[in-house]
Write a structure and sequence with these properties.
- The structure holds two protein chains of two kinds.
- Chain A is an alpha+beta fold.
- Chain A has two helices and four strands.
- A four-stranded antiparallel β-sheet of chain A has the order 2-3-1-4.
- The longest helix of chain A is centred in the last third of the chain and has 15 residues, at 50-64.
- The radius of gyration of chain A is 11 Å and the shape is globular.
- By secondary structure, chain B is α+β, with helices and mostly antiparallel strands.
- Chain B has four domains: 2-105 and 216-278 and 557-608, no CATH class; 116-200, Calcium-transporting ATPase, cytoplasmic transduction domain A (Distorted Sandwich), CATH 2.70.150; 293-320 and 433-540, Rossmann fold; 324-430, Calcium-transporting ATPase, cytoplasmic domain N.
- Chain B is built from 21 helices and 22 strands.
- Chain B has a seven-stranded mixed β-sheet with strand order 10-22-21-20-11-18-19, sandwiched between helices.
- In chain B, helix 7 packs antiparallel against helix 8 and helix 8 (254-267) runs parallel beside helix 21 (586-605).
- Classes of the chains: A alpha+beta, B alpha+beta.
Chain lengths: 73, 614
């Protein structure tokens, strides 16, 4: 199952790549894909503790790119 | 956005003012520079500070802040302001360019229907297409998009299918015709019985495909991501070394070495590449979908530029796949009887030949009369019809069952029929070659495709005659589905290591071959879920010539990608080297950062446009 998010406030492609790398390191995240052009993030993770993982993802985003917000689609 | 632009303009005016008018007191000039700097760079400084507090260095804001503050520190006021100013102009331009391509992508995505008018309890309700269930009736007025796939229950109209197929000629539809979501109703009100949920409807599938295409990354994109990962830290480390080591060893002016180090920091952002490469691919995929070709990933668009061998399925790909009964040659039975038996025997099959037999028979088939139905792969059908044992199939079937038949040498598919073990005649069915098939092969050869191959389950004589007419290099006929797999395996071994093999089929019964080829292309995929699923590239219409167009588009995209990679890397490296030896200034560094970025983005935007002269 992939979870889609809309990303706002992402204004540099390199930041998107960095963010992708940081999220990938979170435990339980299988694959993550940030599309800078469509401003979407696709997250595949362990479904059992999905809520937990999404919280962690949000935390990482706040740390790496404070101006970025995600919203579940 | 506008606020940013205003800030830049004010800062730019102040900057030019300070550059042109030299006050006697240098302090005034410097003060103006500082004001200009604060106006344009305050945001960056703020972000840099915030990120440092979070333990995040090496980000753009930090690098730009260090470079510019450093320049102030060593007294290079104009440079400091210029770097920040041009950096901000570059950023502004970048977001403009990205927004522009986002918009043109969005216009491609404009096929998403917003609502459906559904009949419920005798009234028309306007609802979200998501809420409509299979079997419900929807009403589509002229000018509206068809929200869900279904069948026309009432009305006749013409549809604009351009968004799906790239085809500009409207399509006429009437009662019982299948209609696809995403088409625009042009003429009159139609009632549609919904056959697929919104999620499964054509329009959703297409949108999903295009939006997810960029998740399958090409080699070039992976290269850039890796490059970017190492490039910035390496350049920053060299900058540090440059600032400390040479003055200690060679001695000399600390300030000039620091100046060089700061210039390094300006060049250290890989943004030009990181943004322009995916943008080019996105543009290419977008351009392809404009002409009715769906590409499922940047990797396939990249692979397409290296196609060496193009393998085609014959039926439905190079030929129309619309078979028509040409001749009925009965023996010992009437023509009508022979056709009836053939049509009954082929009743359960979806093969184009079966369809044409049923079409020629054109009467209702009573399925109770068909018993002991058995399909013999690659040969035909064995069944009991109306109590009689019947065989319908090719020569192999006749030979296998030891039926004495009369061999007929005609171009086309010959269906031999035996009743109760006795030969009863044959039916000749033939197919037509598509108008653009010949041109497709010619154009492929012009575009450096080394080998064109046709695979067919059809007879050798038919295969060879078709191959000759359209000028294909090789033909392998009388292949069973598993033979096609083997042939493609063999062909895969003959290509060069970098070359790719593309297989083009109708996606209905060649899923294994589509999957094993480097690039599986399904043709006429519109509304065919299985074809869309099994292939890497879907050509929505029936035109093989679109393969050539897509290859051209892929080559153009790859050319842009290569240009950008080579251009950006070489300018950056060149400026770094010149800077290290003190031969270039911070001005060149600004160009290597912002200038290169802008040029690369402008170049990438070319991929969005359809290639000309096709």
């Amino acid at each position: 199952m992939s979870n889609k998010f809309k990303i706002t406030g992402l204004d540099c492609a390199n930041c998107a790549a960095n963010l992708e790398r940081a999220i990938q390191k979170i435990e339980g995240v299988e694959t993550v894909n940030i599309n800078f052009i469509t401003q979407k993030m696709e997250l595949e993770c362990n479904e059992n503790d999905k809520e937990e993982i999404i919280k962690k993802v949000k935390k990482v985003i706040k740390k790496e790119e404070p101006d970025v917000d995600i919203e579940k689609l | 956005m506008n606020k940013k632009a205003i800030k830049i303009i004010i800062a730019l005016i102040l900057y030019i003012f300070a550059m042109v008018i030299k006050f006697n007191n240098e302090l005034i000039n410097n003060l103006i520079f500082i004001i200009s700097y604060i106006i344009v760079g305050f945001e960056i400084l703020k972000k840099a500070l915030r990120n440092i507090l979070k333990g995040k260095v090496f980000d753009e804001n930090f690098l730009m802040s260090v470079a510019t503050l450093g320049a102030f520190g060593i007294g290079e006021f104009p440079e400091a302001v210029a770097v920040m100013l041009f950096y901000q102009i570059g950023e502004l331009f970048q977001s403009y360019a990205v927004n522009k391509s986002r918009k043109s992508i969005a216009s491609l995505m404009d096929i998403r229907p917003d609502f459906a008018n559904v009949y419920r309890n005798g009234k028309i309700e306007k609802v979200n297409p998501n809420e409509v269930k299979i079997g419900e009736t929807i009403i589509v007025k002229p000018g509206e998009k068809i929200p869900l796939d279904g069948v026309i229950e009432e009305g006749t109209t013409t549809l604009d299918t351009k968004a799906l197929t790239g085809e500009s000629i409207p399509k006429e539809v009437t009662l019982k015709d299948e209609v696809l979501s995403g088409c625009i109703n042009l003429n009159s009100v139609i009632k549609i019985k919904v056959e697929k949920e919104f999620e499964k409807s054509t329009v959703s599938q297409i949108l999903d495909l295009v939006e997810n295409a960029s998740s399958k990354k090409s080699k070039s994109e992976n290269f850039i991501t890796k490059f970017a990962k190492y490039y910035t830290p390496i350049v920053v480390i060299i900058a540090l070394i440059l600032a400390i080591v040479p003055p200690l060893i060679i001695g000399g002016d600390f300030l000039s070495w620091i100046y060089r180090a700061l210039s390094f920091l300006v060049v250290s952002c890989p943004c030009a590449l990181v943004i322009s490469i995916p943008l080019s691919f996105f543009g290419g995929i977008g351009g392809a979908s404009k002409m009715g070709v769906l590409i499922k990933g940047s990797n396939y668009l990249e692979a397409l530029s290296n196609v060496e061998i193009a393998v085609f399925d014959k039926t439905g790909t190079l030929t129309k796949g619309v078979f028509e009964v040409q001749e009925i040659n009965p023996k010992g039975v009437s023509k009508e009887e022979l056709l009836k038996i053939a049509a009954y025997a082929e009743n359960y099959s979806n093969h184009p030949i079966s369809k044409s037999l049923k079409q020629a028979y054109n009467e209702k088939i009573d399925e109770n009369k068909i018993k002991k139905f058995e399909e013999i792969s690659g040969q035909g059908i064995k069944a009991q019809i109306d109590g009689k044992n019947v065989l319908v199939g090719n020569e192999k079937l006749m030979q296998e069952k030891q039926i004495e038949y009369e061999k007929l040498s005609k171009i086309g598919t010959i269906c031999y029929i035996a009743i109760e073990g006795k030969y009863a005649g044959n039916i000749v069915i033939s197919d037509k070659i598509k108008e653009d098939a010949k041109k497709t092969i010619e154009e492929l050869k012009k575009n450096n495709i080394k080998q064109t191959v046709m695979l067919t389950g059809d007879k050798k004589s038919v295969g060879e005659s078709v191959a000759k007419q359209i000028g294909i290099d090789k033909v392998y006929a009388e292949l069973l589905p598993q033979d096609k797999v083997k042939k493609v395996e063999e062909l895969l071994k003959t290509k060069s290591p970098k070359g790719k093999l593309a297989f083009v089929g109708d996606g209905i019964n060649d899923a294994p071959v589509l999957a094993m080829s480097d690039i599986g292309i399904a043709m006429g995929g519109l509304g065919q879920d299985s074809a869309i699923e099994a292939s890497d590239i879907v050509i929505m219409t029936d035109e093989p010539l679109k393969i050539v167009k897509t290859i051209k588009l892929s080559k153009k995209t790859m050319r842009i990608v290569k240009e950008n990679i080579i251009f950006a890397i070489s300018i950056k490296v060149l400026v770094l080297i010149l800077t290290a030896f003190g031969l270039s200034t911070m001005w060149e560094a600004v160009f290597a950062d912002v200038g290169v970025s802008i040029i690369a983005i402008i170049n990438a935007l070319r991929a969005l446009k359809k290639p000309k002269n096709l």
